[in-house]
Design a protein that fits this description.
transferase; Aminopeptidase; 140 residues; seven-stranded mixed beta sheet; alpha+beta; acyltransferase activity, transferring groups other than amino-acyl groups
Length: 140
């Protein structure tokens, strides 16, 4: 498994997989190195996209691992890889969120993320906001 920043040739894969980003924002995110691509034998098997909350706090917006690779530890490796990148850039905390009706909240909590609040949008499940101090990164 290899984790790399997305490049222009990854555009179609990102467009196919990530239904939560407007297509006009994909290329700028690629250019800013805000999308990571996970590859196995040079084949894309997942991605992770991030941005910045309040323009100053790294916020993981999306992580996707192809179905057959889930439960193998790849998601954990990608999150730790991203956390280390953010730590190297001088950030002390990262954030993410997940819907209260999704199992991802348990994944993030196992990785040391803590509940920090929630967002309530009309006709949608509760969005749980999670944070993690990078000084507490697990070394494995």
């Amino acid at each position: 498994m290899k984790i790399d920043f997305a490049i222009e040739s990854d555009y179609e894969y990102i467009l196919l997989i990530d239904k939560h980003i407007h297509k006009t924002l994909i290329r700028p995110k690629i250019k800013e190195n805000e999308i990571l691509i996970i590859r196995e034998s040079n084949q894309e098997i997942g991605l992770m996209r991030y941005g910045f909350f309040w323009d100053n706090r790294p916020f993981m917006n999306m992580i996707w691992i192809d179905e057959e690779y889930r439960g193998t530890g790849i998601g954990k490796k990608v999150v730790h890889y991203w956390e280390e990148l953010m730590k190297q850039k001088g950030f002390e905390m990262v954030m993410t969120s997940t819907l209260s009706n999704e199992g991802a909240q348990h994944f993030y909590r196992k990785l040391g993320y803590r509940d920090a609040g929630c967002l309530m949008l009309e006709n949608e499940p509760l969005e749980i906001i999670l944070t993690k101090e990078l000084t507490k990164i697990d070394v494995e």
